[in-house]
Amino acid sequence: MKTAKLLVSSIVVVVAVMAGSAVAQSTADKYIISAKAGGVNYVEGNVVSLSQDGVGSRVFKGDRLEVGERLQTGANSRAEVLLNPGSYVRLGSNAEISLIDDSLDNLRLRVDRGAAMFEIFATKDFTVSVVTDGGDVILSRSGIYRVNASNAGSTKVEVFDGRASLLSDSKVSAGSGKALSVSAGNSSVSQFDRKNLDGLAQWSKDRGKSLAEATATLRNRDVRNVLISSFNMGRWNMWDTFGLWVYDIRRGGFCFLPFGYGWSSPYGFFYGHGINWYNLPVIIRNISTTPNPTTGTNAPASGQNGTKVRTRPSAPAFSRIESDRRNTPIRVAPEVPPMYGPQPTGTVRMPAPVMVETAPPAPNTARPTRP
Q1: pTM, 2 dp
Q2: CATH number at residue 76
Q3: Assigned domain for 57 exists
Q4: DSSP labels for 24-61?
């Protein structure tokens, strides 16, 4: 009987989910849901891409940087590229990057020349790697980073907030307020003034604030319908990422919708709402946060010294980043716990109902009076 009841309940919820899909068609032109890396989210000035064959083409906002391609900015030009959801790389003038791997749990790129700012969410299972002549530099904590590449082949990673380490030697690392310099056969750690922001660093911070405000102004009803529709089409789940890219045509760009509650950006700007605010059908969370050992982070990930295999973690990425207190940019409101924390599969943390009972009236023991 329990199985039968569960089946009927699931059918009812699926019908509700499909009903949401029909409504979503009217708003699909406003909001697009994505969990992919490589989207070009901002262009200013002269920005071009070069294919692996060396063919160049002008880049516009909305284009996509594919694996193996290079993105170049000219004089007085800027560009912003989406990484894993919630993370960005922003290029200043006369800069160039190459996208090597767009896997959400092992994203790798190279800053070939110039300077780039990184605003990222990361854990030990979901890192961003900067490829240099001296080896990969792993950005393993949420934070703000600046990468400067010189023509001589050296790369300097300044850590405004977070931690950067050499893949080949994790003891060579830099925390907040320090810089890791890497070249062929050499590496060193030094201090820098992280309060001294140049034009690129200030623009990156301003963009972070603007994009957080965009998330806070998303419309509940419209976004909810498209979230349900895109989930039904298999475009996202809640396991292998921290949230989703949501494209709002009114603002003309993507912003980040976190899965967790009460999140701020790595710059400290509040997003306003997490995905819980959209009141999605419970079945979406139950399906999305159930481990599937045939997909995701158990796939081999190429490393500098060969191939290593990642084991499937026991909790969704957004849940793990909330429990990692070293990820200081994650500011979960202490007075209200996250809805989607570690808990038994198939349940949703909901407040217990309040039952109000009134005491029965006391019996009347007085003797009736005679007329």
Answers
A1: 0.77
A2: 2.60.120.1440
A3: yes
A4: HTTTTTTEEEE--S-BEEEEES-EEEE-TT--EEE--T
